[in-house]
């Protein structure tokens, strides 16, 4: 795994350059959204790419975190940090409770169950109007912790950029640990993994919780950053967007997750000038990427360059 | 009491028939290629939207209806040729992403060419509501049920009594063995995508006078069809039809008796219950893992 950290330095360098040079709110805003998405996609990739468990409902955890941070401080005067922790706790507990029955399933039934979970969460968020503001959503207060809050867009980029570096570093170490090797083993063959002593249920449960909790935290932070939440955050289309970022960047590729998130977060902004054709163009890009680079960007490029990139 | 129940039940069955058509579409494509086709809902939308477009262009309803099924069928076959076949060696998840891309392209094109507004069609015959056991029914409902019955019987005969139908079944059981028996599995793939698209469009066409349509109805309708297919046991045709109808009826009963706001959650709560109790679905055989 030599050189695995090189990408980390590149990300850190890019973030530093952005922090020093960007003054335009528009570009800073996109950079912040990219970093937030990159973390969520990385967490999703740990589940899908490394452990081989597909999820079509991961946006539900984004929604739970976001709404915890909107509702608890907004309606019950909770401090934002506590609300964030409560959202993360709820997401973790839900993941823990659902992991055993859901992750027993495989293939299309697992896809169906995770999809159903996501839709149920978004239907609840849409219909509990008294609490959530219904389909129109609700505003979110600023984030503060011990009197400190991220100041301006650069403060936010510094915060989410640091978290991104932390998550990439953590993921590189995780997949190379005994835990990570067990995950990859159960992806390869569940029977073979259990024969060599991998406790399937326990590992699947751990990775589901491990993936859900940071996703919820990022949901909370993005709610505070944007200042507004709507049920679309937890919706099916958002789950699909996240999945698309995983697959375009490359399954089981850490830097692929980051690249996929960066590209597909920028894409709608670039396509916005197409006036009405952006959906069509986005769809075409997905189709063409999957036909010509079915393994995703980073694994394909790495294979061409004859190198291994995590 | 009875009137309300009959009302809910029949409107549930009517909506359930589109889920059934859609579930059959998922089943056909899943059997042919193991792919979950997330563009299935867009064919339902196309059936309704194209019928509206063709009638507004001045064509008589029967011709418009025929074209509204025929065009998506051809589109389904074309899609298999240009988007699925070139990626047939990719992992299934890549193919699923391709179908998601396709659904975005179709939805986007319809939105650009036909606009974002909500459309409807006139009922196919009588404009007067019907009365049955005190329930008041939309005049389109006999059409929905009648056509569905005819198509289902036709499909059964097709799969069990014709060579083409048996070729599709054989390919779904074992593509390699089918090829060794001289079946052109490439053509079976193409036919499966065409039939799936056509069935989806037919469902969308039939239900449009009752539920109305717009460019974005496909997502939810398609997902509920997927629920129907998994509920019945993915890959099982009879299961798909029963699953689709069950989803429609459950949804209508909950909307009528409990809460219409939570109508959209019903299919997914139902599938949760089924998957936990019987992961292979109602009609599916328990899968054995091959090591």
Secondary structure topology:
The complex is a heterodimer of chains A (310) and B (291).
Chain A: H1 6-21, H2 25-50, H3 59-76, H4 80-103, H5 107-127, H6 129-132, E1 138-139, H7 152-175, H8 178-188, H9 190-195, H10 200-226, E2 228-229, H11 236-249, H12 254-271, H13 278-292, H14 297-305
Antiparallel strand pairs in A: 1-2
Helix pairs in contact in A: 1-7, 2-7, 2-10, 2-11, 2-12, 3-4, 3-5, 3-10, 4-10, 8-10, 11-12
Chain B: H1 2-33, H2 40-56, H3 61-84, H4 92-114, E1 130-132, E2 135-137, H5 141-161, H6 163-173, H7 175-180, H8 185-211, H9 218-232, H10 237-257, H11 266-277
Antiparallel strand pairs in B: 1-2
Keywords:
heterodimer; A: 310 residues; mainly alpha; 2 strands; globular; B: 291 residues; two-stranded antiparallel ribbon; 11 helices; 72% helix
Averaged pLDDT of chain A, please? Answer: 88
Separate helix tally of chain A: 14
Number of strands of chain A: 2
Q: What's the gyration radius of chain B in Å?
A: 19 Å
Q: Give the H and E element order of chain A.
A: HHHHHHEHHHHEHHHH
Helical region count of chain B? 11
Shape of chain A: globular
- Main sheet makeup of chain B: 2 strands, antiparallel
User: What structural class do you assign from the helix and strand content of chain B?
Assistant: mainly alpha
Describe the largest sheet of chain A.
2 strands, antiparallel
Q: pLDDT under 50 segments of chain A (min length 5)?
A: none
Q: Largest chain interface and its two residue counts?
A: A-B, 45 and 45 residues
Q: Tell me the strand order in the biggest sheet of chain A.
A: 1-2
Distance between the termini of chain B: 55 Å
Relative strand content of chain A = under 5%
**How many strand segments of chain B?**
2
Order the strands across the largest sheet of chain B as they lie in space.
1-2
